Amino acid sequence: MATNAEVTGPVSQEDIEAAEKLKNEANELFKKQHYDDAIELYSKAIEKNPNNAVYYANRSIANLRLENFGYALGDASKAIDLDKSYTKAYYRRAAAHMSLGKYKLALKDFEYVTKARPNDQDAKMKYNECNKIVKKIAFEKAISVDKKEVNIADSINLDAMTIEDEYEGPALEDGKVTLKFVTELMEYYKQEKQLHKKYAYKILIDVKAYLQKQPTLVDIKVPDDQKFTVCGDIHGQFYDLMNIFKLNGLPSKSNPYLFNGDFVDRGSFSVECIFTLFSFKLLYPDHFFMSRGNHETLDMNRMYGFRGEVTFKYTAQMADLFTEVYNWLPLAHCINNRVLVMHGGLFSSDDVTLEDIQKVDRNKQPPEDGIMCELLWSDPQPMLGRARSKRGVGCQFGPDVTENFLQKNGLDYIIRSHEVKNDGYEVAHDGKCITVFSAPNYCDTMGNLGAFITMYGKDLEPKFTTYEAVPHPNVRPMTYAHSFFSSLCQ
Description:
Layout lengths: L12 H19 L3 H14 L4 H13 L3 H14 L4 H13 L3 H14 L4 H26 L5 H4 L23 H12 L6 H15 L5 E4 L6 E5 L6 H11 L8 E3 L10 H14 L4 E3 L7 H7 L1 H8 L2 H11 L5 E4 L3 E4 L11 H5 L12 H7 L1 E2 L5 E3 L6 E3 L1 H11 L3 E4 L8 E4 L4 E4 L13 E7 L6 E5 L15 H7 L1
Parallel strand pairs: 1-5, 2-3, 3-4, 6-10, 7-9, 10-12
Antiparallel strand pairs: 2-13, 5-6, 8-9, 11-12, 13-14
Helix pairs in contact: 1-2, 2-3, 3-4, 3-5, 4-5, 5-6, 6-7, 9-12, 10-12, 10-15, 14-15
């Protein structure tokens, strides 16, 4: 056990023993992947004995599993404050820094561990892996300064790509996506086969050209008697995506959909998901909508698997092209001027209007604060007001913030995604803030249901459909993630 380098006050023997018992119970819950319950008991242990670094470090790793990177960072730092020699805490803090794209800060923590434990091979490996990323990013920045911005889409020569005689997969018709193509594509993917690279590149080039002409905030008009479906995070779970279409029907002009970001990463069938979704976007541009999520970004794709998957299944050049395309995804959608849909949530400022959202220059990687960042990263909280984000990016906003935003902009309610919910959805803030998450048994570990929302244009009353995960081929989540990070997340 870690020693106590800093004491915040005297703790009775009775409280020390009670805290240890709570910690042991929390550890059992952690092993069962009941992370929220484990965090609750670690917190109770800390209340009994706030001087034990282990409790903070354990709560940190549980928060990491829930992607609460900000909380994980705070807990790891507190553990280090209590015990400067507790190496596990440095690992936890490094993992949180890595998750937030703060690679140089992570490197400092790994460097400390390697000096404290010079014979620890695992520490050396993690330091070297992190150092490679730091050097790679520095190299990429140096190159980008030395040369003009390269437009990948314009540099692709489709005519130079030949379709081999042995290719038996789906084919674009006169260079266009058809219903026959996308139907065959989904079946081809179910057989674990890959779309030819020529067609894959053509889809990406066409999607980029279309998205460039779209506004940052897209208005959607749903007729009174038409059903409209909103789906949340998919995260590369292709077979669960297919189940959504089985339960709710394929997208069509009479069955429109909005997919609300985080199509990729973590799940190891992200390529299959994104080409299916992009194909439907091209087939039904006015009846199939896609919002950008925080995982349609370079840092997330680099760490959580999508970039590795695209490079493995196609090329690094295609991975770069995806980054280019994702920069043009809209950031929000407004249904019948009454329901606003975004991936993350609301804002750290009270005066944001729909017009402000519309004015955002989205063709970039999201900044660390401001409207674009918060649309992708923020989360609701039950308490009034605002709080620092548990993720370390964006903000947390209470029911009063939601009510004020809705009144200011003449809206009924918001729909967002971004958070795993046990039932696949959650209705909060007096029914005015709805979360929908469509990846059941997230990462093959969370045991949650998935959900989607349906509504009719007449009243926009949300109805929820929930479902369990379906079997998928034996390729684990995070298979293509950065080798350093996949080891942290299993």
